[in-house]
Amino acid sequence: MSMYSLGNDLYSGKRSFDIIGRRKLWYTIALVFVLLSALLLLVKPINFGIDFRGGSQFTISGTANMSQSDAIDVLAQQTGDDTARVSEVGANSIRVQTSELTNEQTQEVRAGLAEAYNVPIDDVTSTFIGPSWGADVSGKALQSLVMFVGLISLILWGYFRTWTIAVGAIGALLHDLIITVGVYGASGFEVTPATVIGLLTILGYSLYDTVVVFDKVRENTAGFLDQNETTYAEQANLAVNQTLIRSINTSVTGLLPVGSILVIGVLFQGAGTLRDLSLALFVGMLISAVSSIFLAAPLAVTLGERRKDIKEHTERVLSARQGAQDTTIIRKKKA
Question: I need a surface site. Which of 170, 204, 314, 329 has the fewest CB within 10 A?
Fold first, then answer.
């Protein structure tokens, strides 16, 4: 069956995947991934970049020698620091990050790196980022995240006029964030300001996909209390199925270019903004596509079914349905 035919069948209700009805399974899977991500962060802490932790950074440009051990040896010899972080930047550059150095140590390391990589000393640049700057960047990043979540919660509550949808959307956002950070930590990639930008971007992307689903849920459940044929959960499940193909298409068209950028950044560019940003975007967009379907809507339905009117309506629909089935069985027996 083509995607077009499948989309039509899902939209009309001719075919349907029981996504809401299996929400306990999705909750379990989501919880397992969140716990695994948290465990990964405990076993392998996040590799914060120099912008967050502070320190000295050296960049050797135009070198044919891409050996990382040479830079580690120079740092160990000049400063006694054998924990320097060395990475390739592009095709002919090396980046070296270490703890805070004095001016004298900085000049000695520059000279040592220039000699080790056989480049003029002017091709070895040095920068310094103080710990207060790193703490300020970390604080601003956390502040931005808290403000984003708080503001979005208010906007969703005001737009949909129900707190259940707001909680469902925020739950999916936090799920996406935790798993993305866990994957980022497991990969060993440095967390830079570009990473933070990527994380905030995927939150917006996840929110967009979730709002599309919830818009359809609101449309399908408008006035549902006035009929006794389908329950609130069934109408919500229809809405998820009706937006399923759109969610898949949106995610695929978004993931393809980001995936290409990620491959280019890892294979050809080395460490840098391109790679940091694209990894966060790729993982986050993939996870958010799943959570908007299998987590946000089911969570909102679970919370909504706690309302007295929805609970009574569900019982009334199921009771009427069971009564109709019993009547049909009796008629068949008489016949």
Answer: 329
Instruction: Give the other-Cβ count within 10 Å of 49's Cβ.
Output: 23
Question: Comparing C-alpha atoms, which of 6, 33, 15 is closest to residue 294?
Answer: 33
C-alpha span between 94 and 110 (Å, rounded): 13
Q: CATH 1.20.1640.10 in the chain: give the residue spans.
A: 3-48+133-323
Query: According to CATH, what is the number of the domain 55-129?
Result: 3.30.460.30
- Name the least confident of 23-27, 65-69, 239-243, 268-272: 268-272
CATH architecture of the domain covering 3-48+133-323: Up-down Bundle (1.20)
CB contact set of 147 (below 8 Å; sequence gap of 6+) = none
- Contacts of 293 by beta carbon, 8 Å cutoff, 6+ apart: 19, 213, 240, 244, 247
pTM: 0.75
pLDDT > 70? residue 123: yes
Confidence check: pLDDT of 325 > 80: no
